[in-house]
Specification:
- This protein has two domains: about 55 residues; about 70 residues, Winged helix-like DNA-binding domain superfamily/Winged helix DNA-binding domain (Arc Repressor Mutant, subunit A), CATH 1.10.10.
- Helix content is about 60%, strand content about 10%.
- It has five helices and three strands, in the order αααβααββ.
- Helix 3 packs across helix 5.
Length: about 130
């Protein structure tokens, strides 16, 4: 699959085209275009940095559902189905609960282990870190 060219990369390419031959002096119009492209690149970089900061803050702080999932966890291992059964709400799905549990494990709040059910299937179970 081809790599998609980003807007930033396109602006950089345009700058190179405008600069053209390095031995020829740039016109005022070319310099203005370069300045404009530089400003656009800075704006893209600033927007990306702000988005990274927001995402990092969201990840660190979590959300309401993650807090609910954490409150359901105990020191006993529980399967995802058992955890989902304890949480009420129309928007609650197994995938959303699994994502929150993964976040809790990554942050060192919970532990994940493999357990077997009555039929011998291997399931993931979670508990709070002691």
């Amino acid at each position: 699959m081809e790599k998609k060219i980003t807007k930033r990369e396109k602006f950089e390419m345009l700058k190179e085209i405008i600069r053209g031959d390095v031995n020829v002096e740039m016109t005022v119009e070319q310099a203005e275009l370069i300045d404009f492209l530089d400003a656009q690149i800075v704006a893209i970089d600033t927007k990306a940095e702000k988005a990274k900061a927001r995402n990092a803050e969201k990840k660190a702080n979590g959300d309401e559902l993650r807090d609910v999932v954490q409150s359901v966890l105990t020191n006993e291992l529980q399967t995802i189905d058992a955890i989902v059964a304890q949480i009420e709400g129309e928007e609650i799905t197994k995938a959303k609960i699994t994502a929150r549990l993964t976040s809790l494990v990554k942050n060192g709040i919970a532990e994940k282990e493999d357990v077997k059910d009555e039929e011998g299937r291997k399931l993931k179970a979670y508990k709070l870190v002691a």
